């Protein structure tokens, strides 16, 4: 995008509300009950694996406290969402081109939460997301960990949610808390469970069984299970080199698991004609969480 095009878009953003976005896009939020479970690695692995299948993927880093998706992939953003919300840039100007054709919307720690924007900032963001998502099949949202209001708002707005946990007891407790809160707000919200960093399939199944038992007994809810991302040393090696494991080690166990995950989601997550429109309507809603 040249300077003249960007200037025209910034001018339009000052006073025009976009038409209702009606294009199809799957909007998927990836979250965790606690930090340190490898959520951002899961986002990167899934994005790259979907791209390998020919899907057009945009990833929005919505972790404003610890924005690190760009670091994980060795990218250095000059501008972030903060510049878009202030009207200094349009979204296309801050987009990062990642490996395998994925595009990343970089966050910036300390900026306003997406659920508490003023009217003009909201307009700038929705216009940009509308234009960007018109050329995307998937909008993946990397949320912050935990059950803060801003995180819950994003999860409720997304079409479906992937909850990442590990076999550790503290991670399981926090994962159950997340399931409970989402269930109480919208029992029909599609929720997928992904066990990360499991030593073997038996350990992963035990983790699933423990959570299923709790959610069925106390919530009357059965979780959709995506499976296991194994404890694979290639992931740490890829992080140290600031590369996606799917890109750097195409045949390692973690990569094969991410690819299986992508195929499963592609076949099981339905395409909504107004997926992005629905996402924004709910995100912009003033209804309390």
Structural class: alpha/beta
Oligomer: single chain
Summarize the amount of helix as a percent range: 40-55%
Instruction: Please provide the count of β strands.
Output: 8
Query: Low-confidence parts lasting 5 or more residues at pLDDT below 50?
Result: none
Domain tally = 1
Q: How many strands, which pairing sense, and closed or not: the largest β-sheet?
A: 8 strands, mixed
Instruction: Give the H and E element order.
Output: HEHEHHHEEHEHEHEHEHHHH
CATH topology: Rossmann fold
The overall pLDDT, averaged over residues, is 85
Shape type: globular
Our estimate of the beta-strand percent is 15-25%
**Assigned CATH class:** Alpha Beta
Q: Please give the CATH architecture.
A: 3-Layer(aba) Sandwich
> Strand arrangement, largest sheet?
3-4-2-5-1-6-7-8
How many helices? The count is: 13
Query: Distance between termini?
Result: 38 Å
Features:
289 residues, alpha/beta, Rossmann fold, eight-stranded mixed beta sheet, 47% helix, globular
What does this structure look like?
- With 289 residues, this protein is α/β, with parallel strands linked by helices.
- It has one domain: P-loop containing nucleotide triphosphate hydrolases (Rossmann fold, 3-Layer(aba) Sandwich), CATH 3.40.50.300.
- 47% of the residues lie in helices and 16% in strands.
- The chain is built from 13 helices and 8 strands.
- The chain has helices spanning 3-12, 39-52, 69-72, 81-85, 91-94, 119-133, 149-157, 169-185, 201-219, 233-240, 245-248, 253-268, 275-284; strands spanning 26-32, 57-62, 96-97, 103-105, 138-143, 160-165, 191-198, 224-230.
- It has an 8-stranded mixed sheet with strand order 3-4-2-5-1-6-7-8, with helices on both faces.
- Strand 3 and strand 4 (103-105) form a beta hairpin.
- Helix 8 runs parallel beside helix 9.
- The mean pLDDT is 85.
